[in-house]
């Protein structure tokens, strides 16, 4: 199944437990469970608890640290629910699919398990609405494809209000994993960053686009105004419509924006003509960390990881170093440099 088909089928595909666990709740995410825990942090603090239910969301490659967290919570007196993409049966209470779709399945389980079934239902509605607007057969006014065009050839800078800090995390993840694109989340005090980062070196703003994810509060409004004169483009990616006004922000819209980001990243990979699937080295690294037998080899042929040729003058494969400096010492070059 290709990624576009997987994304089309994702809304409504959650088939895990729907019952609520005893409160109070606490949440820890490691490995592939980190993003799911971040998106579901509105339901439970990201910490350990001594009572109620401790959720530990993980993957097989992070089984050791997940086990340590689970043991600590059990010793403290909490009921532990281990949510994972795989591993030893003793380390998994709730099994969720691995890969790109882990945040959806794990976060929807957490919504139900913490007694927020309505938020889970709202998320399904928003995802379904986005699917109908972003699917490949929608050729005109497809917002995901249009935004992918905007990002093509540029480095995205990711901004969100403090109560939605999971969104830069989510978009950095999908843009890298699927779109093979580096995006930079701007966290902390973004105003201090943007007012200083591009001063006196305005070329640093070239080929940059700022994405404001979710609601833009007063501070982000100032940041946006500053960036409009310093980088190529500023784009607001609002929460999708489809639920009541009281649901603006929070879990369901944030999960929906993660889903929208996955569509954008898939179309961006298409624009770059790269495979949107996980690179083989990721699977090898995860398998090695999970303790599976086999030699860990993360190297790849140079032509597989470079899109353009490097500058001439580097050491050749046989060890000979060609001196190219003479090319830059001619009288013609000096005249060009002096503006003659």
TrEMBL record:
Region of interest called Disordered, as start-end residue ranges on this chain: 294-340
Start and end residues of each Bifunctional glucose-6-phosphate/mannose-6-phosphate isomerase C-terminal domain: 141-285
Span of domain Phosphoglucose isomerase N-terminal: 3-115
Keyword terms of this UniProt record: Isomerase
GO molecular-function terms, A-Z: carbohydrate derivative binding; glucose-6-phosphate isomerase activity; mannose-6-phosphate isomerase activity
BP GO annotations: carbohydrate derivative metabolic process; carbohydrate metabolic process
Family: Belongs to the PGI/PMI family.
Name of the featured protein: Phospho-glucose isomerase C-terminal SIS domain-containing protein
Organism of provenance: Deinococcus hopiensis KR-140
């Amino acid at each position: 199944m290709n990624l576009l088909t997987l994304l089309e089928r994702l809304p409504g595909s959650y088939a895990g437990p729907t019952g609520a666990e005893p409160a109070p709740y606490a949440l820890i995410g490691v490995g592939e469970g980190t993003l799911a825990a971040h998106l579901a942090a509105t339901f439970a603090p990201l910490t350990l608890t001594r009572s109620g239910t401790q959720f530990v969301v993980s993957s097989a490659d992070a089984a050791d640290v997940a086990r340590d967290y689970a043991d600590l919570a059990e010793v403290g007196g909490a009921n532990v629910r281990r949510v994972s993409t795989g591993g030893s049966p003793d380390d998994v209470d709730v099994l969720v699919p691995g890969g790109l779709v882990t945040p959806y399945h794990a976060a929807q389980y957490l919504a139900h398990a913490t007694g927020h079934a309505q938020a889970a239902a709202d998320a399904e509605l928003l995802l379904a609405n986005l699917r109908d607007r972003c699917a490949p057969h929608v050729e005109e006014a497809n917002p995901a494809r249009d935004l992918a065009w905007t990002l093509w050839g540029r480095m995205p800078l990711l901004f969100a209000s403090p109560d939605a800090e999971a969104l830069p995390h989510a978009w950095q993840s999908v843009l890298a994993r699927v779109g093979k694109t580096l995006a930079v989340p701007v966290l902390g005090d973004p105003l201090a960053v943007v007012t200083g980062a591009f001063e006196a070196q305005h070329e640093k703003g070239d080929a940059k686009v700022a994405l404001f994810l979710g609601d833009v509060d007063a501070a982000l409004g100032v940041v946006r105004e500053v960036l409009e004169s310093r980088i190529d483009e500023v784009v607001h990616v609002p929460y999708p419509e489809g639920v009541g006004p009281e649901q603006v922000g929070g879990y369901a819209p944030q999960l929906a924006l993660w889903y929208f980001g996955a569509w954008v990243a898939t179309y961006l990979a298409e624009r770059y003509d790269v495979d949107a699937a996980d690179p083989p080295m990721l699977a090898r690294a995860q398998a090695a960390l999970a303790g599976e037998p086999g030699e860990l080899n993360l190297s790849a042929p140079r032509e597989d990881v470079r899109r353009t040729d490097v500058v001439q003058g580097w050491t050749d494969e046989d060890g000979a170093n060609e001196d190219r400096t003479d090319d830059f010492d001619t009288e013609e070059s000096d005249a060009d440099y002096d503006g003659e």
